[in-house]
Amino acid sequence: MQNRGTLIGNLCTASPAGDGIPNLMALNAEVELANRNGGLRRLPIADFITGYRQTACRSDEIAVALIVPKLRKARSDFLKLGARSYLVISIAMVAGVIAVEGALIAQARLAVGACSAVPQRLTRLEAALVGHPVFDAVELVDEAHLAGLTPIDDIRASADYRRAAAFAMVRELLENLAEAPGRRAA
User: Fold this and answer.
1) CA-to-CA dists, residue 25 to 60, 133, 154, angstroms
2) For 22, which of 35, 66, 95, 122 could close a Cys bridge (C-beta 3.0–4.6 Å)?
3) pLDDT tens-digit readout, 71-82
4) In this structure, are 125 and 175 located in the same domain?
5) Residue 67 β-bridge partners
6) Are residues 101 and 163 in the same domain?
7) Residue ending a domain, choose from 11, 42, 67
8) Residue 112 burial by CB count (10 A; 0-12/13-18/19+): exposed, middle or buried?
9) Which residues of 127-154 are buried (b: 16+ CB within 10 A; e: fewer)?
10) SS3 of 77, please?
């Protein structure tokens, strides 16, 4: 119960540095909301988080479930950069899920957190990866794929450092996914 509550709480807080959010985005998860009249609605995580610490949850709703669809032949990874190895607000984080058919990427989902007001999917990079060999994926990453990120300067890191870290972490994540067919997603 605590883990389930913590993940929903992390999502509903809508912090740009919430560790669970990029993972849920990469998993293509949806949040299910219930209202006091018994009505239910589902929203993709990217649509649920509307801004810095803002969600699409209405005043008469509560988050009751997370729905994570299964992606066949998928592998996943998560990387976090912080000042310490645990219990720390992230400087940058990256989550990714890829489905591989043979040696080719059939589907890619990549999300970056702590580098914008809301975590973001890298949809242009995802599209660029499809159909390419998994072992060549890292070579396709270009800084332009992360152009939509709007990191801030704060006590933990500068915007430039966050942007450079996110770029390096996306590349590392793709290297990890190429080497680790044993990692399974959802």
Assistant:
1) 25, 23, 25
2) 95
3) 999 999 999 998
4) yes
5) 30
6) yes
7) 67
8) buried
9) ebbeeeebeebbeebeeebbeebebeee
10) strand
93 in Cβ contact with 20 (< 8 Å): no
Residues 90 and 79: their CA atoms lie apart, in Å, by: 10
Confidence of residue 38 (pLDDT cuts 50, 70, 90): very high
Radius of gyration over alpha carbons of the chain, in Å? 16
Domain boundary among 67, 83, 102: 67
Could you tell me if 88 and 39 lie in one domain?
Answer: no
- Residue owning tokens 């942007």: 163
By residue range, what is the domain housing residue 122?
74-179
**What is the reported pLDDT for 183?**
53
Same domain, 121 and 58: no
Of 131, 118, 120, nearest in space to 170 by CA: 120
Q: Which of 14, 60, 15 is nearest to 33 (CA)?
A: 60
Q: Give the pair of three-digit tokens for residue 183.
A: 């990692």
Could you tell me if residue 185 is inside a domain? no
Distance CA 79, CA 168 (A): 11
pLDDT in the model for residue 180: 62
Counting the structural domains of the chain, the total is 2
* CATH number of 54's domain: 3.30.465.10
